[in-house]
Design a protein that fits this description.
Elements lengths: L3 E6 L17 H13 L2 E6 L7 H5 L3 E5 L5 H14 L4 E4 L1 H5 L1 H6 L4 E3 L4 H11 L12 E5 L2 E4 L28 E4 L2 E2 L10 H5 L4 E2 L2 H14 L4 E4 L8 H14 L5 E5 L7 H9 L2 E9 L3 H7 L5 H13 L3 E8 L6 H14 L3 E6 L7 H8 L25 H16 L2 H9 L3 H20 L1 H35 L24
Parallel strand pairs: 1-2, 1-3, 3-4, 4-5, 8-11, 11-12, 12-13, 13-14, 14-15
Antiparallel strand pairs: 5-6, 6-7, 9-10
Length: about 500
């Protein structure tokens, strides 16, 4: 009988410019609320970024769940290993990484893997484990192991009505009161099919929205509990449906529920003046824009459906509404070279973008990029912890892995967050912006120190390959000389020594 469930979100590896801001994903709080509603079980959630795992609680559970994205997979598997070594507690895993690599999770010892949206499958699994009858093979979207091996049931359709699910219960997270930013999600899915993104594979290309009144009830509850916290709308594109977003913002304005909030959006958000006005009036302070590149060829290769002119206009218009812009660029496509990276940094500084992330193109499982690079043998790193957007794990087309790491992951970020750039903000009395960039500068130094071995290995690999190419060129050059000495043509046929060519009638040279 399942009476107690412990759910764990592993800690992200390494440092990045937003390491300071702890933001749990909403999958586990939602599953926890669902388990409470359906079965009345005790649920504890450990978000490793803010609280240590109480292993006494874990080992007293009847069922443990671990959620993982690709860069947290090594930590997730280490947690799984410990649980399996010290107990016989069944362990279930879910999240984007294992959704696309279920066999890997089962091989590592997971008993159950939820592929895709796991809410309904979880309820069916717990009902069966509680003796409710049925067979595991009947649970769509579930992969599992038994004495006969691994089994992958047919995929499950996505949840049509998101408001049929309970609201995520953040209070189930140990140490939740430490959260300074509260996550809220109003939708799932994305109709844009960016080549490097796994969102459409995970949640589909059709937008599905929660009822506005349901979201408002959640906002009212969360802001009453944490009045000083800001809200981050976790939607992959918060303004995907302008009509839906405006309906929510109008109700926030009417009810006076207007905490400082942040969201992800596309550059086309600026085309709706009413929407931009409502965003400002309800205290939007920061928009996270997936800018990706200023190289038109790269934007086309990514299937981004936007232009450089669109990016420039978006930054300008958003700033007119006194909203900050965080620009996210993805460097390293087959169309990018050193000049692309240099121009991207210059553009970011020139355009006035407030904060940036120059991410390295990362082939995540579940993406077309991963499938292509794996097929072509271009992925050379097998440590999932390095698939973070900050490490080069594949062979770029127009530069070496070390050059991409150096120019984008190190040089580009350090130029944008340089001390002189920080001082310029101080001279302009933009103290908050200066503090953020100083923090980012220090974080970059930490990243460089903690990844010294990885970067050194890339450099060694680059030098070795360069020496190998140099040796090959020298060898080919020497072969040509040798052929000329013995009178053999490049095609491998002997040349006449003296006399005349039968066809040209010209004398041959000795």
């Amino acid at each position: 009988m399942i009476n107690k469930v412990v759910l764990i979100e592993p800690k992200s590896p390494g440092f990045h410019v937003f390491s300071k801001f702890k933001l749990p994903r909403l999958g586990l709080p939602l599953l926890g609320a669902l388990l409470e509603r359906e079965f009345g079980v005790e649920v504890k959630i450990y978000f490793q970024e803010i609280a240590r795992i109480d292993w006494g609680e874990v080992m007293s559970a009847d069922l443990v769940g671990i959620s993982t994205i690709t860069p947290t997979a090594p930590v997730a598997y280490s947690l799984l290993d410990r649980i399996k070594k010290e107990s016989e507690i069944p362990v279930m895993m879910g999240g984007p990484h294992v959704s696309f690599l279920a066999d890997e999770a089962l091989e590592r010892g997971a008993d159950y893997v939820f592929r895709g949206e796991g809410e309904e499958a979880l309820v069916e699994l717990v009902r069966q484990l509680n003796g409710g009858g049925g067979d595991l093979s009947s649970i769509a979207g579930l992969s599992y192991r038994d004495d006969d091996g691994f089994h992958h049931n047919p995929d499950r359709g996505r949840i049509a009505h998101l408001s049929s699910l309970p609201r995520p219960d953040l209070t189930l997270i140990e140490g939740f009161e430490k959260l300074r930013i509260i996550p809220v999600m109003t939708s799932r899915g994305c109709p844009y099919d960016c080549k490097f993104c796994s969102v459409t594979s995970m949640f589909g290309r059709r937008y599905r929205f929660r009822d506005t009144d349901d979201v408002m009830a959640e906002l009212e509850e969360l802001t009453a509990r944490s009045p000083r916290a800001s809200v981050f709308f976790y939607d992959d594109n918060f303004t995907a449906s302008p009509a839906h977003t405006k309906e929510l913002l109008r109700k926030m304005k009417e009810k006076g529920i207007t905490p400082n909030w942040h969201a992800q959006a596309r550059v086309d958000v600026v085309e709706d003046e009413e929407l931009m006005t409502l965003m400002k009036e309800t205290n939007c302070v920061n928009l996270f824009l997936g800018l990706e590149s200023i190289n038109p060829a790269t934007l086309e290769a990514y299937r981004k459906a936007q232009t450089v002119a669109d990016i420039e206009r978006a930054v300008e218009v958003i700033h007119k509404y006194k909203i900050r812009v965080h620009g996210m660029f993805v460097l390293g496509s087959d169309e990018d070279d050193k000049e692309t990276i240099r121009e991207t940094v210059q553009f970011a500084k020139r355009s006035g973008i407030d904060t940036v992330q120059f991410l390295v193109l990362t082939p995540l499982p579940g993406t077309e990029t991963f499938d292509e690079l794996k097929r072509d043998g271009r992925i050379f790193v097998d440590d999932w912890g390095k698939f973070s957007g900050h490490h080069v794990v594949f062979k770029p087309a127009k530069m070496s892995p070390f050059q991409l790491q150096k120019w984008s992951g190190l040089a580009a970020m350090r130029k944008f967050y340089s001390i002189p750039q920080c001082m310029k903000l101080g001279v302009s009395f933009r103290w908050k912006d200066m503090a953020i960039r100083m923090y980012a500068h220090r974080t970059l130094n930490k990243w460089k120190a903690s990844n010294k071995y990885f970067v050194s290995e890339l450099k060694h690999r680059y030098k070795a390959e360069r020496q190998e190419r140099k040796a090959e060129r020298a060898h080919r050059k020497q072969e040509r000389k040798d052929r000329e000495v013995v009178g053999i043509s490049p095609e491998g046929t002997a040349r006449p020594r003296g006399g005349v060519h039968s066809e040209s009638g010209h004398p041959t040279s000795e």
